[in-house]
Write a structure and sequence with these properties.
The chain is of the alpha/beta class. It is about 25% helix and about 30% strand. It contains 5 helices and 9 strands; from the N terminus they run ββαβαβαβαβαβββ. The chain has a 7-stranded mixed sheet with strand order 5-4-3-6-7-9-8, covered by helices on one side. Helix 3 links the parallel strand 4 and strand 5. The longest helix is centred in the N-terminal third of the chain and has 13 residues.
């Protein structure tokens, strides 16, 4: 695997540390400025420190690793791409984030059929993803962050608390009204 070191952790204990991105993999990592906006918002809602995260369609793991750098207690990374899994493993090792990290090579929808609960789910599927209703109805978390190239309907149980556009990237932060554990 050819590797480029072009991304960095934006803030927290690993601030400025470089991440590996596999070339020619089709992986589209979240831009630094978008990650910064997401985590500044999550922090303002008290949704980072000591929280359990799910990084679904994890790619390089940049979202989940940013969460760990900012004080999250754990992250489960889920992706079905071998290059993505290798990048997450290498990036976790580079940042010395071994404890509190679980890496699963698995289809995202199949993983969601498990009943584990998370405080925050980070959802950044490929931009051509179309199974939003099925996906958002299966996420078992108190809050969700969705990154997409289009406006996404999250379903009835999700209450949007923040919505922002960053160029071609739309970010929605929502809380699950059926879960009272925030």
């Amino acid at each position: 695997m050819v590797q480029l070191r072009i991304m960095r952790i934006v803030a927290g204990s690993a601030r400025g540390r470089k991440l590996i991105l596999p070339t020619n993999s089709g992986i589209r990592p979240t831009k630094d400025r978008v990650r910064e906006a997401i985590f500044n918002s999550l922090h303002s809602y008290g949704l980072v420190e000591d929280r359990q995260f799910l990084d679904l369609f994890a790619g390089t793991g940049s979202l989940g690793l940013e969460a760990l750098s900012r004080g999250a207690s754990s992250v489960v990374f889920v992706d079905n791409n071998d290059l993505a899994i290798d990048a997450i493993k290498q990036n976790s090792k580079i940042l010395n984030f071994i404890e509190g990290v679980e890496i699963r090579r698995q289809d995202a929808m199949a993983y969601l059929s498990e009943t584990r609960h998370f405080d925050v789910a980070l959802v950044d599927p490929p931009y051509n993803f179309e199974m939003w209703d099925e996906l958002t109805s299966q996420i078992n978390s108190s809050a969700v962050v969705v990154e997409s190239s289009q406006k996404v309907s999250l379903g009835r149980s999700w209450v949007i608390i923040k919505e922002q556009s960053h160029g071609q990237t739309n970010v929605v932060i929502a809380v699950n009204e059926g879960v009272k554990t925030l």
